Amino acid sequence: MILDELLARRLLILSGKGGVGKSVVGTALATAASRRGKHVLFVEIDTPRVAEAARYLGSPPVGGKETEISPGLFTLNLSPALVMEEYVRHTVRLELLIRKIVESPVYHRFLAAAPGLKELMVLGKIMTLEEAREGWSRRPRYDLIIVDAPATGHGLAFLKVPAAASAAVPVGPVASNAKKILGLLRDPERTALAIVAIPEEMAVVEAAEFHKMAVDTGMHPRALVLNGCHEARFTKAQEAEILRLASAGVDGRLPSGAPLAAALQAARRHIRRRKLTRFYTQRLRRALPLPLITLPQLFHDEMGPKAISLLADRLEAA
Amino acid sequence: MKRRPQPRGPLASALDDKNILIVCGSGGVGKTTTAAAFGVHGALRGRRVLVCTIDPSRRLATSLGLDHLPDKPRLLSLARLAQEPAGSLWAMTLDTKRTFDRLVERYAGSEAARKRILENRFYQHVSAAMAGSHEYMAMEKLLELAADPRFDLVVLDTPPTRHALDFLEAPDRLMGFLDTSILKWFLKPYFAAGRLTLKVATRTGGVALRLVDRFLGLQFLQELSEFFLAFEAMYDGFKERAAKVHGLLRSASSGFVLVASPSRQTLDEALYFYRRLREGGMPFVSFVVNRVHADPDEERAPKRQRTGSTPRIAPALSDALTQVLADQTVLARSERRAVARLQVDADESLVLVPELEADVHDMKGLAQVAEAIFGTVESRLPRQTRRHGTSSEALESPARTR
Question: How would residue A193 be classed by pLDDT, with cut points 50, 70 and 90?
Fold first, then answer.
């Protein structure tokens, strides 16, 4: 149900504190959407090396081009420099001049130093992707575009750029683009925001901050995804038994051959983390008026297709 | 509890001797917490420390158990940690807009120039809201703080890696930009008159200008150039200070600490950052890997606490226990492999911080993190130590001092 709500619009932007697993959650959301037959594009912005999504899905690294890494699921790693170059190409259309421009030091320094220009370019590109239509059918190229926005502090600055740009320069191509982008971001019919967090103090605080600021800027958060939840593995009675045994200092082995003392130690740590999960889940429920999806903490050696598929299952069940 | 005395490693020495410590790493690895813990430990060791975060999400406030940290350095109480702390701890967050305003007020030269900038529309919006200006301002702030006589150590928390790199490159970028002909040769002749027509633009540089018009718009350029022209008087100052920061970041009294979590992804990023630091000639101090999970198999209860008896355990509980143990073992070993890889690629000081019992978001928690990193505090001022008991006792029983 919550998933339907999240996937109902054409543009879904994910934000949250760094390290909460936005790329993983985004990849799982994209997988869940593609299972429903949607053409999905998962956009990562300026990731340091290769696109995470492709790596999680066991596909070779993709660069700045839209790449179908599984049926119906495309990924794209947007680099501001490449987007800018594409824009120049599109506007100039004269190979010799294009080369002259993009190779000139002035261009590079300008691009590097002009505040906000990179953000505006990237958002403009996302808008273009949202508007892209197939040749004869006029069907949207993508049913859904999921954007992995930069971590909160800067992520919000990122989403604030169009408003700032259109206020700073009220007329001209930059302003009209900024206004169009702003219109898209604020349109409740076309764009949804999802906040990703984990059950920890700072991530929860930032989720609440982000929610407030997003609403203040006129955007529409639709759901909260709480990643990395430690779910109950023991019954209440079993937990009591574990704590009793642990303090009694028992030894030996379990029927499975596992060392008992180590297992009890692990179990105690699990119980503590589960309690924290419950505490922060409740706090988020109280603090934010948003539907909440919880995703489990995984214990795989590496994040891979199996783990992503498991998370997608969980999203579908939500 | 008695603890083994810990040798003072490169990180501990840096905390004692350096004047600037810059804490970098990708998002969510505990940079802010680590920076704050450095601050706590440094203050207990007798230094006058300022912890400054340039992260706009104001996480430091939560780390220190404060709801709001002002833009100005604020003295924090260490009363819960030590009766008479040898040093002092200050904290602040960077407010980009206010720093920019103050910079203008200080360096604009004339009242008219000041007004012209502060009332420029581009300035009003750009300086407040746009990403990227944080880094410029952080750089200016660092220079100011480094010269502040109240502190002998500035611990600087930075935004996630991508942007922390921006921060490192900000001085060079700004210098490059101000050096560019874009200002003097390209914009100024056409815009200085205050009017701009395409007719003028057909002379030198006209083609390029026409192109810029096509994809950015003359209006945009006009606003931008007004903004730049308003700053004209400040360029030399900007350049001078940018050069100073460039030097400051590379001086022996500065040091970089790279923070990571024990996952392959963030360790890879730390390594990438490490190489960039080395290339840039910036002094590296240590890696700090936060929240390392213990291998359950290696941290059983001490022998003497074991009764040696093996109780009967119901099959359902036994299965669940086996699974939880297996999960945590997989996690711990995969973390250990990731850390070992980093050690192969960068043979440097590396501090592992175990995952703590609870979330860290107050002074006491920070003191625990500091203890995990540095061991217990041994004050550098022995006389004081003798009079008031060891600081480590104070650390272990904060209730006593309340």
Answer: very high
Nearest to A315 by CA among A12, A9, A56, A27: A27
Residue A50 CA: distances (Å) to CA of A19, A73, B240: 17, 17, 37
Q: What is the ipTM of this complex?
A: 0.86
Nearest CA in chain A to B311: A250
- Residues lower than pLDDT 70 in chain B: 1-7, 54-70, 126-133, 160-167, 171, 174-225, 299-308, 377-402
Q: Which residues of A touch B129 (CB under 8 A)?
A: 116, 157, 160-161, 163-164
> Whose CA is closest to B251, among B17, B38, B53, B25?
B17
Contact B84, B386 (CB under 8 A): no
User: Across the beta sheet with A144-148, what order do the strands follow?
Assistant: A67-70, A73-78, A40-45, A144-148, A11-15, A191-197, A221-229, A292-296
- For A175, the token pair is 């302003």
Distance of CA B339 to the CA centre of its chain: 22
Nearest to A251 among B132, B181, B307 (CB): B307
For residues B228 and B183, the answer to whether their CB atoms sit within 8 Å is yes
CA A106 to chain CA centroid, nearest Å? 34
Residues 265-324 of B with CB under 8 A from A: 265-266, 268-269, 272, 296-297, 299-301, 305-311, 313, 315-324
The tens digit of pLDDT for each residue in B127-153 reads 655 555 677 788 888 999 999 999 999
Is B124 touching A (CB cutoff 8 A)? Answer: yes
